[in-house]
Design brief:
The chain has helices at residues 5-12, 18-27, 29-37, 45-62, 67-76, 84-104, 112-132, 134-157, 164-180, 182-192, 200-220, 224-246, 256-259. It has 288 residues and is an all-alpha fold. The relative contact order is 0.12.
Length: 288
């Protein structure tokens, strides 16, 4: 860095006007001066910069993390292998965490993905209800569900309805619910011996994101409730990712290799959430 500093300093000291302000707001003025103006890569500012970069990356990726799952539901016109209970519990957990973090005044980079993922989860829940309960009951149930969620979010953000003490207890419960939300999906995968139309992109991205979020929480948020929730979530995301690999060639699993842009042989897809309950392992494995 010492060799490059004479060449880089004229650049870092003459950045376009909005960038220094954004950098100082993101990193704090002290760390902006140390890292950008002085090019001194030392802790704790370096750790903060890494945390902020990871946080922004997670928020950016969260805008599309559930899109492959939504597209798979729309293209297959089926919710085979997707647990509504799992998404319902996760959505509740994320919405409580979103409101709790916002009302606590935490940096947006520490929780911003919860807002984007919650919106995508709501869409997935509506699609699962629509495909799972038919053309008549499905849309009605989806509409009622969205209305109840909207009313709940309004109540959570209103200090007069839910004060911070109650919201703190809800956040403690939401962390547990967020962890438990993975269990129904893990059970469905094991029960049917495959992952149905569950998106491999979403599962693996969640795994990487939950690991990154542990680091950003340690750096930016002094709240054990949030931290322990992310650690437990990472553990169960690891189980889901392991199932995705284990059941990769199962007939009840959609073509994940094609989804990830890799060449693969054609894999048949199950037609109902209860398909292939007799095999707990990939049915392409020999038995006997």
């Amino acid at each position: 860095m010492d060799l490059l500093r004479p060449y880089l300093l004229p650049i870092t000291h003459n950045l376009p006007h909005p960038l220094p302000t954004l950098g100082a707001n993101l990193l704090t003025p002290q760390c902006y001066n140390q890292l950008i103006l002085n090019l001194s890569l030392q802790n704790p500012c370096l750790s903060l910069a890494i945390s902020k970069t990871l946080g922004l990356g997670i928020i950016t990726l969260s805008a599309i993390v559930k899109i492959p799952q939504i597209l798979k539901l729309l293209s297959s016109h089926s919710a085979a292998g997707v647990s509504f209970l799992s998404y319902l519990l996760e959505t509740f957990s994320y919405l409580v965490t979103l409101v709790y973090s916002a009302r606590q005044g935490f940096p947006f980079t520490a929780y911003g993905e919860t807002a984007l993922i919650s919106l995508q989860n709501l869409c997935i829940c509506a699609l699962v209800l629509g495909y799972g309960y038919g053309e008549t009951r499905g849309p009605v149930l989806a509409s009622v569900f969205m209305g109840v969620v909207g009313l709940g979010v309004w109540a959570l953000q209103d200090e007069g309805v839910v004060d911070m003490r109650v919201l703190g207890w809800m956040q403690a419960g939401a962390g547990a619910v967020g962890v438990v939300s993975k269990v129904p999906q893990i059970w469905v995968n094991w029960q049917q011996g495959g992952t149905g139309v569950l998106s491999a992109f979403t599962v693996f991205t969640y795994l990487a994101g939950s690991l990154s979020r542990i680091f950003t929480t340690l750096q930016e948020v002094d709240d054990k409730l949030i931290l322990y929730g992310f650690i437990a979530g990472f553990a169960l995301n690891t189980v889901l990712a392991a199932q995705m690999v284990y059941y990769w060639r199962s007939p009840t699993t959609a073509n994940h290799a094609e989804e990830l842009g890799k060449k693969s042989k054609e894999i048949a897809m199950g037609t109902s959430t209860g398909a292939s309950t007799k095999g707990k392992g990939p049915s392409t494995r020999r038995r006997g």
